Amino acid sequence: MTAAPRPRVAVVGGGIAGAAVAHRVTAERPDADVVVLEAALRTGGKLATAEVAGVSTDTGAEAFLARRPEAVSLAQEVGLAEDVVHPEPVSARLWSRGTLAPLPRSLMGVPPDVEVLAGLLSEEGLARAREDATAPPVVLEGDVSVGDLVADRMGEEVVQRLVEPMLGGVYAGHAHRLSARAAVAGLVAKLDGTRTLGQAVAAAMPAPGAAPGPPVFAGLVGGVGRLPGAVLAASGARVRTGVTVRGLERRPAGWRLVAGPVPEPEVLDVDAVVLALPAAPAARLLDGPVPLAAAELTGIETASMAVVTLAFRADEVSDGVAAGSGFLVPPVEGRAVKGATFSFAKWAWVREAGAGVLVLRCSMGRHREEQVLQRTDEELVALARADLAAAVGLASQPVDSHVQRWGGGLPQYAVGHLDRVARIRRAVARVPALAVCGASYDGVGVPAVIGSAEAAAEAVLAALQARDTMAP
User: Fold this and answer.
1) Contacts with 283 (C-beta within 8 Å, 6 or more apart), sequence order
2) Beta strands per DSSP E along 367-411
3) Residue 329 CA to chain centroid, in angstroms?
4) Per-residue confidence at 74, pLDDT binned at 50, 70, 90?
5) Are 21 and 11 in contact (CB under 8 A)?
6) d(CA 402, CA 307)
7) In the predicted model, is pLDDT for residue 279 greater than 50?
8) For residues 418 and 326, what is the distance between their CA atoms, to the nearest angstrom?
9) From 24, 316, 382, 422, which residue has the greatest number of CB atoms within 10 Å?
């Protein structure tokens, strides 16, 4: 019997999803020839670092859920176990009505006990929030927006003052447009027809005073942006940057990819393909071979945002500024900054690396409200400084700054998102040796993206095994 030829796998996209696919495929099939094709000149996707005042700091996601295993496990597998760290025990605040207040205990802004909202809501808003406790249990049929769900039970003021800033920080989206089943799945799972909204939140959260569990979040010394590069290096896959894949065609024995500039196209024939891409470029490539999936992907909108990182002399930052890990801003406040993270207070490694310099970051931009991002980098820095001065009195001149723009960086999980993803996956599964993964499907957090990548890798591995079985 003739041995099957060495399997060839193309991974389109060199972010953390593509890196995780390459790592999993090569771990299971060391004989596979895996090539990662990235259109940008660097790998990493939305995970990135930059040097600000001599400190290498994240300009994309700076943390990931530690209670989901995927990110921590992957970091350990690629030699970063000793660099996994957890944030300092400092809490965030809410900048609302001109005052900084402790961010109340909640699940994505929905409190288990509305009495903690006294002082944050108006008297009318608090009275309306209390109505949830005496209303009939929630019966959720189908999907609704997070905003509609919460407003119906606790009133619009809870949505505007608490839910919106929380969702804005995670999705750069709006509560009345984001799917409850996709964005607050843990809460929805407790809405079994026997609980009020507050009771469902309480059931989904650890009880007050309970023994502390493992840390919720983790990061990496030197930045989470280090993770994709470490994963790609450990995979042993060939990595090519600056290569745009423009075409995807099903062939009798696999797939043909057309890459490179139109005048000088490059053709790659492979046995299996994984598209680890955002929704729009994935849709363009799938338009021919899987038009149903392509049509569904075009319906996933994205939000653009910017991260403004600032470094200040430590002796010019008051102790009051460092009293928390940062603050969130309700959009009804009309501020440019939607949230600020005091990285120097949140991460010991950032503070130690600063050597007399304190690094913090501000985020700007929401879905369909990207006009603030039309300004120059200098103007964004000025806006961030103005909001910091108003919020915490930090009016010093920064010693360094950096602006990272993420155009179309965050997919929006609209009402019905889970059904849309199921339709995409069914359509793709009908075509042999093809898989999709990334933040557009099962979650925007790093562990969720890695989880989708591992599922895609398993599909490809199964296709390669079937190929081997059929070989003469």
Assistant:
1) 293, 294, 295, 297, 298
2) 400-411
3) 19
4) very high
5) yes
6) 8
7) yes
8) 32
9) 24
Q: How far is CA 345 from CA 70, 352, 357, 397, in A?
A: 26, 10, 12, 19
Report residue 408: phi and psi, to 5°: 60, 35
Radius of gyration of the chain (CA): 23
Q: Hey, what are 410's tokens? A: 């965050």
Site of tokens 């950096």? 402
Instruction: State the pLDDT confidence band at 471, using cuts at 50, 70 and 90.
Output: low
Could you give the C-alpha distances from 272 to 44, 252, 322, 403, in angstroms and in order? 22, 12, 51, 38
- Looking at residue 39, its pLDDT comes to 97
Spell out the residues 6+ positions from residue 241 whose beta carbon is closer than 8 angstroms to its own: 14, 38, 40, 41, 42, 43
Q: What is the Cα–Cα distance from 445 to 297, expressed in whole angstroms?
A: 19
Could you tell me if 307 and 169 are in contact, meaning their C-beta atoms sit under 8 angstroms apart?
Answer: no
**Residue 38, both tokens:** 């990235």
Helices (H) and strands (E) in the chain, counts: 17, 20
pLDDT digits (tens, 9 = 90+) for 396-408: 999 999 999 999 9
Inter-residue contact 143 to 415 (CB < 8 Å):
yes
DSSP 42: S
Element containing residue 49 per DSSP (H, E): strand 49-52
Tell me: pLDDT of 1 over 50. no
Distance CA 130, CA 134 (A): 8
Half-sphere exposure of 227 (CA within 13 A, CB side): 38
Instruction: Report which of 247, 328, 339, 241 is spatially closest to residue 284, judged by C-alpha positions.
Output: 247
Q: What are the distances in angstroms from CA 63 to CA 35, 201, 220, 431, 445?
A: 28, 23, 8, 36, 9
Rounded Cα distance between 331 and 254, Å, is 49
* Termini Cα distance of the chain: 7
Q: Which pLDDT score, from 0 to 100, does residue 209 have?
A: 66
**Coil, helix or strand at residue 400:** strand
Per the confidence metrics, is the pTM higher than 0.90? yes
pLDDT at res. 206: 82
15-65 confidence digits (pLDDT tens):
999 999 999 999 999 999 999 999 999 999 999 999 999 999 999 999 999
Are the C-beta atoms of 167 and 178 separated by less than 8 Å? yes
Strand residues in 243-392 grouped as ranges (E): 245-251, 254-259, 266-270, 272-275, 302-313, 326-328, 337-341, 357-364
- Cα angle: 226, vertex 232, 237; to 5 degrees: 165
Cα separation values, 388 from 37, 100, 318, Å: 40, 12, 13
